[in-house]
Amino acid sequence: MKKSTRRGATSEDQILELDQFLPYLFHLITAGLSNRFLGRLRPNGVTVQRWRVLMVVMNRGPRSMSELVKLTLIPQSALSRLVDQMERDRLVVRRLSDLDTRVVEVELTDHGRQMYWRLVPAAIAHAEAIVEDFDEQERKLLYSLLRRVLANLEVDAFSGEGPGEDPNPTPRGIRTRKSAAREDQRLEGRDKIVKSKTVKSKIAKREATRAGESKTSATRRTTLERSKGR
To answer: What are the angstrom distances between the C-alpha of 15 and each of 20, 21, 26, 28, 188?
Structure first.
C-alpha cells in the first residue's frame, strides 16, 4: 500500500515523491543548464564559472572578491583560483579600488570584454532554448515566480530589487554594446587619471631626491670650506 504523501502529512515514514520535491527539481534544472551551456562555451575555451565572472563584471563593473562570491555563487577558495587563472589568461586584472585603496577589485581587460561579446550569441541562444515553447505571458510569469522563490530564500541577487517591483520583469543578463562602450570610456578615463597620478608621484619623488642630494652636497661643501678655513 502506497504511503501518504499529501501536503501537510507529518508521518515519519512519509515518502517524498521526487517529481514533486522542488529542491530536487531545481537541482535537475541547474545540472541540465550547466551541462548544456558548457557545450556552447567549450569551443571558446571558457567554463561556466568563467562566464559568470565575465557576465557579472561586465554588468556591474569592477567588483571586490567578496562581491563576486555573492554574485557568481562561487565559493571563495574556488573563486580565488579562478580569478588567478583568468588574470593569467589576460581576461581580468586586479586593481585597487578608487573609493578605498584597502580593497582590491577585479575588472575586465580589453581581451576580457572581447571574450564576453564573443560569447553573447551563445548565451542568448542558451537562454532562449530554456523557454523556447513559452509564450510572452508565460515567460513574464516565470520570471515573477522565480523572483518570489529567491525572495523566500532571502537571496538578494538583484541589489534589492524584490519580486513584484517590476510588473514586466525581463532578463538583466545582457548589456548593449553602447552602454558597454560608455563603461569602457569611463575605465579608460580612470586609467588615464591613475597613470597621471603615478607620473606626478614619480616626478615629485625624483625632485625630492634631487633636492635632498643638492642639500647634502651643499652641506658637504660648507663642511669642507670650514675645514680648509681652519
So the answer is: 11, 11, 19, 19, 59
* Residue 39, amino acid: G
SS3 158: coil
Q: Tell me the CA end-to-end span of the chain in Å, nearest whole number.
A: 119
At 115-145, the pLDDT tens digits run 999 999 999 999 999 999 999 999 999 999 9
The percentage of the chain sitting over the pLDDT mark of 90, rounded to a whole number, equals 52
For the chain, what is the mean pLDDT? 79
The kind and range of the H/E element at 6 are none
Domain extent for 62? 18-130
State the Rg of the chain over Cα. 28
Residue pLDDT, tens place only, 189-211: 655 555 555 555 656 667 777 66
* Reported pTM: 0.61
Between helices 48-60 and 76-88, what is the axis angle to 10°?
80
- Residue 72: burial class (beta carbons within 10 Å; 0-12, 13-18, 19+): buried
The neighbour count for residue 64, using CB atoms within 10 Å, is 14
Does residue 1 form part of some domain? Answer: no
Are 23 and 120 found together in one domain?
yes
In this structure, is residue 137 part of a structural domain? no
Between CA 15 and CA 4 the distance in angstroms is: 8
Cell of residue 156, nine digits: 538578494
